[in-house]
Amino acid sequence: MTATFALVGAAAGSYLLRIAFVTLIDVDRLPATVRASLADVGPAVTAAIVVSSLAGGAGRAGLALSAAHVAGLAAAALIAWRTKSLLWALGAAMATFTIVGFVS
Q1: Alpha-carbon span 36 to 30, nearest angstrom
Q2: Which of 26, 33, 39, 47 is found 20 to 30 A from 59 (Cα to Cα)?
Q3: Residue 75 CB partners (closer than 8 Å, separation 6+)
C-alpha cells in the first residue's frame, strides 16, 4: 500500500507542477524572448514523442519504421507544410497511422 501512496503522491505533485505554470504565471509579464520561445514548445515535445516512439522506447539504437509510421510522418510533413498548423499535422498523422496500420 505504501508504493501506491507514493505513486499517487508523485502523480499529484507532477500534475500540480505542470498546471501551476499555466494557471499562476501571467504570460504578459514574461520577457519577450521567453514568450517567443513558448511557440516552439509544442513542436519540440511532439518531435521528442515521435522519435522516442520510433526508437521503440526501450533505449535501443536505431529506428523501427513500419509502413504506418512512414505514411503518418509523410502525412504530417505534407499537412504541416501546407497549413503551418501543428494541430492539423498531428490529426493527419494520427489518422493516416491508424488507417494504414489497420489495413496492413
Answers
A1: 10
A2: 39
A3: 92, 93, 95, 96
List the one residue out of 91, 69, 70 whose CA is nearest residue 80: 91
How far is residue 7's CA from residue 20's CA, in Å, rounded to a whole number? 20
How far apart (Å, rounded) are the C-alpha atoms in residues 29 and 26?
6
Please report how the helices 41-54 and 86-103 are oriented relative to each other, as an axis angle in degrees rounded to 10.
Answer: 20
At residue 62, the pLDDT reads 63
pTM over 0.85: no
Q: How many other CB atoms sit within 10 Å of the CB of residue 102? A: 8
Which region among 25-29, 52-56, 72-76 has the lowest average model confidence (pLDDT)? 52-56
Residues 6 or more apart whose CB falls under 8 angstroms from that of 96 comprise 68, 71, 72, 74, 75, 76
Q: How far apart are CA 78 and CA 66, in angstroms?
A: 18
